[in-house]
Amino acid sequence: RTRNAHQPEFIQSVEEVAETLIPYISQHPIFKDQSILERMVEPERMISFRVAWVDDKGVVQVNRGYRVQMNSALGPYKGGLRFHPSVNASILKFLAFEQVFKNSLTTLPMGGGKGGSDFDPKGKSDGEVMRFCYAFMTELERHIGPNTDVPAGDVGVGAREIGYLFGMYKKIRNEFTGVLTGKGLSWGGSLIRPEATGYGTVYFVQNMLAVKDMELLGKKVVISGAGNVAQYAVEKVLDLGGIVLTLSDSQGFIYDKDGIDREKLAYVMKLKNVERGRISDYVTKYPSAEYFADARPWSIPCDIALPCATQNELDGHDAKLLIENGCMCVAEGANMPSTPDAIHQFLAAKILYAPGKASNAGGVAISGLEMSQNSLRYSWTREKVDNRLKVIMKEIHNSCIEYGGCETGYCDYVKGANIAGFVKVADAMLAQGVV
Ligand code: NDP
Q1: How confident is the model over 236-248, as a mean pLDDT?
Q2: Any known ligand binding at 78?
Q3: Does 27 belong to an annotated binding site?
Q4: pLDDT digits (tens, 9 = 90+) for 390-435
Q5: Which of 1, 17, 24, 247 is most buried, taking the most CB atoms under 10 A from its CB?
Q6: What is the mean predicted confidence (pLDDT) over 221-240?
């Protein structure tokens, strides 16, 4: 705590994991004797650097760039880059810590990392985003590589940014390698990567419901966010016959009682990905929907809630409302969207609750498959990758049950994800000695 003072998000993510891991570790003294958890909470390396770039007015702007190389016991560091004004060491360390467990759960050979900058892409021209990405990569390039550290996208870093980052890496290093994932299809990207986190979250929900002999057909689903994860979560819920009632962004949410259908989803994708507009525009296009400014969608009665926007976007009060209104399943598409109070309420009410490190692992899993395809210099079909995604999500679900237990019909996915993710990394660390 003293060493990580002023890092509340990081402390929150470690405490959440420690709550279930400490009892497990006390039954397995080798992990305690070798200080495995103490080592896991300290990044192997953390880089912070100046990013200076010139805006459209010719003014020099300065941002701070980071890369947290958290744990490489299982493979090269792997995890996204986030460009958002809120980015700081605490947020990136929490994301990197979660990433270690998540990557372990996929069973693919990936360590954990995370990075980014306090740069805000909102309102910037294409040229400004490109110049920022170039400046960011001129420093980051010396710390990454296809066998060292393979960054990807996250909030504020989509296909456009990955393109600019990859372009500069290739120019400096004079090599075409799979150093980033989330690349365009014609230059090394994988089919299904854009869809993978949203689809994977919904596949995970399918597995959770199956334990209770239920399915998504006809279920009312409340989703937050309107970005990459939220959009493809909507698409997969629709594929499986569910009804999506809400979407949100950082300024408010929309409630469409008639359901967000495919045509409306196509509109949201254009609005958010091409026009970079606000979700409030939805009600201008579809006046039967309602817009709630400065609010989150958890007050809308639903069967299933999928928080897909950002950390700590669902607090204890929201959790209480969801439960009171009959919500029976919460699966996190975002990283750590539920506060500790919200998690305790879900666990106490014994509803189905999946933490992001399990339910949103589909994105990094397909990034892992993108790395494999790059090494093979080969591209797998959409069907093959989607099938692998379904299998991986099922296996993660089953690992959670194996380690978390599912007695008397109640499955503890929090305990399961934390222990299953931990054991593999811990065993590898033990085998590699004190390094
Ligand atoms: P995007 O940038 O595509 O979308 C983020 C969405 O969340 C936007 O709608 C954004 O609204 C909203 N949002 C951001 N900050 C806030 C806030 N403070 N309050 C309310 N809403 C907010 O990001 P992604 O969809 O890629 O990521 C969403 C979450 O999923 C993040 O937690 C990310 O770490 C996690 N994740 C993403 C993966 C991926 O493959 N993309 C993989 C695994 C996890 P606005 O437009 O107003 O900013």
Answers
A1: 98
A2: yes
A3: no
A4: 999 999 999 999 999 987 778 999 999 999 999 999 999 999 999 8
A5: 247
A6: 98
Ligand 1 atom, smallest distance to 82 CA: 34
User: pLDDT tens-digit profile of 60-81?
Assistant: 999 999 999 999 999 999 999 9
Q: Which amino acid residue places its CA nearest to atom 11 of ligand 1?
A: 249
Number of CB atoms found within 10 A of residue 42's CB: 13
Give dist(CA 314, CA 336) in Å, integer. Answer: 9
Q: Is 246's C-beta closer than 6 angstroms to any atom of ligand 1?
A: no
Does the pLDDT at position 327 exceed 90?
A: yes
The residues, any chain, with a CB within 8 Å of residue 226's CB and separated by 6 or more, are 247, 248, 249, 268, 272, 279, 309
Is 357 annotated as contributing to ligand binding? no
Q: Are 67 and 141 in contact (CB under 8 A)?
A: no
pLDDT of residue 3: 85
Check residue 354 and give its pLDDT. 98
pLDDT in the model for residue 5: 84
Comparing CA positions, the residue from 416, 414, 398 lying closest to residue 211 is: 398
Instruction: Name the strand (E) or helix (H) holding 10.
Output: helix 8-27
Residue 22 structure tokens: 């400490």
Q: Which is catalytic among the residues 93, 114, 219, 220?
A: 114
E strand segments, 140-215:
149-152
Phi, psi (rounded to 5 degrees) for 46: -140, 125
Closest residue to atom 46 of ligand 1, CA basis: 249
Distance 251 CA to ligand 1 centre (A): 13
State the distance from the centre of ligand 1 to the C-alpha of 249, rounded, in angstroms.
8
Whether 122 is a known active-site residue: answer no
